[in-house]
Amino acid sequence: MSTPTEILVSQPTAADAAHAPELPQIDDPQKVAPKDARALSALFFERLQVLEEGTHAYQYARNTLIEMNLSLVHFAAKRFRNRGSGEMEDIVQVGTIGLIKAIDRFELSREVEFTSFAIPYIVGEIKRFFRDSTWAVHVPRRLQELRVTLAKAKEELAGRLDRDPTVGELAAHLGLTDEEVVEGLIASNGYTAGSLDLPIGTEQNSAETITYGDIKGDLDPAIELVENLHALAPLLEGLGDRDREIVAMRFGQELTQAQIGERLGISQMHVSRLLNRLLTQLRKNMLAPN
């Protein structure tokens, strides 16, 4: 009877490797056409699963698979070329990491094309790169590079001075003007965005925490009112004199329906019916497509 270990573990043997197909020698795998790469990849994966890791044959098979399928990385990277962060070279390098992960985890027994298996790995790695390294606020490339230079200079000077360097000391160390250093320090704040729920301190004698959201501006409801009035103005011009007067008294002077009735010599119920008709008409005209 087989032991549990014998049931679970099935390592490739020398006999398996001997019966696996021989691999062709490809001088420049990146020049292999995508259609041919698909067929050759299946052959290389079949060989790879029976070769011993660390051997020259294994490294050749794995490296060839990587180079043959780099076209998948370039294909996936194209959709990110307008993201405005990172050079295409950086994106391709990150995507190649995803390709390598896909190659190391792919199994022929999955009965799925390697292309379909690899693309999610490649795209996922690129998206992770953008999530972890994209600037929260777009700044010129010059300032992005200056941020790195300033960070290194600050670390170096802090070690020498045993304190944080001043703007003047950074400028002298880097051969820049004070204004250029200040510009770089301000731009570095755009690298990450803080949460509006982040506490900034507490009032004395108060258990209430103050957050950035508490002191930041909000949408002004008056803006919407201005927009509505702007849209309403030409519609009011189309009303008759009495209708326009009723609207002005109710919403401009804020008179009650009874007060409007007294001024016009009509009942409150009559004013109510007139207002309902006017508001229905105005609402319908405002919502009507241009």
From TrEMBL:
Record domain RNA polymerase sigma-70: where: 90-103
Region (Disordered): 1-29
SUPFAM superfamilies on file: Sigma2 domain of RNA polymerase sigma factors, Sigma3 and sigma4 domains of RNA polymerase sigma factors
InterPro entries: RNA_pol_sigma-70_dom (IPR014284), RNA_pol_sigma-B/F/G (IPR014322), RNA_pol_sigma70 (IPR000943), RNA_pol_sigma70_r2 (IPR007627), RNA_pol_sigma70_r3 (IPR007624), RNA_pol_sigma70_r4 (IPR007630), RNA_pol_sigma_r2 (IPR013325), RNA_pol_sigma_r3/r4-like (IPR013324)
Gene3D superfamilies: 1.20.120.1810, Winged helix-like DNA-binding domain superfamily/Winged helix DNA-binding domain
Gene Ontology molecular function, alphabetical: DNA binding; sigma factor activity
UniProt keywords, alphabetically: DNA-binding, Sigma factor, Transcription, Transcription regulation
Record GO biological process: DNA-templated transcription initiation
CDD domains: Sigma70_r4 (cd06171)
Keyword Transmembrane helix annotated: no
Composition bias, Polar residues: 1-13
Any one Pfam family match given in the protein's UniProt record, by short name: Sigma70_r2
Protein name: RNA polymerase sigma factor
Organism of derivation: Streptomyces griseus subsp. griseus (strain JCM 4626 / CBS 651.72 / NBRC 13350 / KCC S-0626 / ISP 5235)
